[in-house]
Design a protein that fits this description.
mainly alpha; 6% strand; 56% helix; two-stranded antiparallel sheet
Length: 218
């Protein structure tokens, strides 16, 4: 809804950002899950062998709950795109190409997954998108006017990356990496925009489940 009132976040000082980075790095569940993905990426750094890509798709999709049911189709899609050269260059358009997967004549925009898949391969080039990050950027825009952009631009990757860079520049946060900014926006966003995580019809205990790591890309 256009007129939906959002919670007001505090100005993102370096101290506030450090607070959420520290909270993330001191959580064994979060760190352990990240280490598992990193180990897989180190074993399979390229994206031209189907079973290697499938393993990465399954793990990233599961740990971040990006809700891709057709994981094999997504792995085939990534292999066919031949993304390694574009990843090496930090090409933003490859995120949108990965995101748009056609199954049975219908396009599914797996935008959150695509940003995470690219970010794990090239973290210095690709910031991650999720609904908490989106909510936080919109809240900061609406309250503090740090940058002008339309809501839909957050799901257009070249624009999304510019918005993240603009946010960092405006608040003097360029010392932080994309991943560290994600820890801040995601962690703070979970507090300001709490959600219930569900698996089918059952509510998951977010204190004891990997689902507490993730957002639902809806």
């Amino acid at each position: 809804m256009k007129n939906k009132q959002r919670p007001t976040p505090d100005i993102p000082t370096r101290e506030l950002v450090f607070k959420y980075i520290t909270a993330f790095t001191q959580n064994n569940l979060f760190v352990g899950s990240d280490c598992a993905i990193l180990a897989l990426l180190q074993a399979f750094p390229k994206n031209c062998v189907l079973h290697e890509v499938l393993a990465k798709v399954c793990v990233i999709n599961d740990l971040y709950a990006t809700r891709i049911l057709a994981v094999f189709d997504m792995a085939e899609h990534i292999v066919k795109l031949k993304i390694d050269d574009q990843l090496a260059m930090g090409a933003t358009e490859i995120v949108d190409r990965i995101a748009n997967l056609t199954i049975s004549g219908k396009i599914r925009n797996n935008f959150s997954f695509a940003t995470k898949y690219c970010a794990w391969h090239k973290p210095l080039q690709y910031p991650m998108y999720d609904s908490f990050v989106s909510d936080m950027l919109l809240a900061y825009r609406d309250k503090y006017k740090f940058m002008r952009f339309k809501n839909k631009e957050l799901r257009q990757y070249a624009s999304f990356k510019k918005i993240i860079l603009g946010f960092a520049s405006h608040y003097d946060l360029a010392i932080f990496s994309f991943r560290e900014l994600d820890h801040f926006l995601w962690g703070y966003g979970k507090e300001l925009f709490p959600r219930q995580y569900k698996n089918n019809t059952e509510v998951i205990d977010t204190n004891n489940s990997i689902q507490s790591l993730v957002e639902k890309d809806i």
